[in-house]
Amino acid sequence: MTSVTLVRRIRARPAIVxxxxxxxxxIAQWWGPDAGPVLLAExxxxxxxxxxxxxxxxxxxxxxxxxxxxxxxRPKRLAMSWRWLAGxxxxxxxxxxxxxxxxxxxxxxxxxxxxxxSEEARQSHEHGWSGALDKLExxxx
Amino acid sequence: xxxxxxxxxxxFAALTDPTRRAILARLEREPGLSVGELAxxxxxxxxxxxxxHLDVLEGAGLIARKKSGRxxxxxxxxxxxxxxxxxxxxxxxxxSRSLDRLAVLAEAKEARLRESxx
Lengths: 141, 118
What we know:
Chain A is of the alpha+beta class. Chain A has helices spanning 14-22, 24-27, 129-140; strands at 3-10, 38-43, 50-56, 62-73, 77-86, 94-103, 106-114. In chain A, strands 1-7-6-5-4-3-2 form a seven-stranded antiparallel β-sheet.
């Protein structure tokens, strides 16, 4: 299985989390791997709609990804196809999904990014085997 | 590019099985173990089961088997693993940091909403 899964507990009700995920306003405030700004965020909030997000990293490089909304079920589930439109060297399409479950303190959010294509591994290969296996246990375990 | 993707998929498929990960972890600690030595502590898995796992791991390019006399020594090949890890690490980092900020944003909104509902 080629995928990354992350689970977070958030002290906010599912509707609030869902809206942060699906509105241009919301996306602009959290999307991206570092504190660089989101330059453009578009999301057509319906199945078949498009999304597009462009952001700049702190190193000055700009990246843009986009795709189509595959599932839109407020406030429980969101799924979209994903492709790098600029600045990513990942050539293929993948699927990004968010599942929201109501829990006592708010929302349990599960993110899955699946069927991602390979790309040039830009990270240094400094992981030793043991570190790599520990990490895998966390991801698959 | 296609070939590379298939290669990565095979690596990931090989890594989803806990027994195979246990085999890899063991080989990291004790490189060059024989197949028999590998099978011993992993009971109730019998030798054929181990052989099957080793086939999958070898097919994914994660291990190499070298025959010397009557024993077969097994060792790790790190390249595909490092490749897969670099890939996973990159996307994990992307989403982990994004979700950190998403949580802060949503929690602030929740707090404001509760304030106004009071």
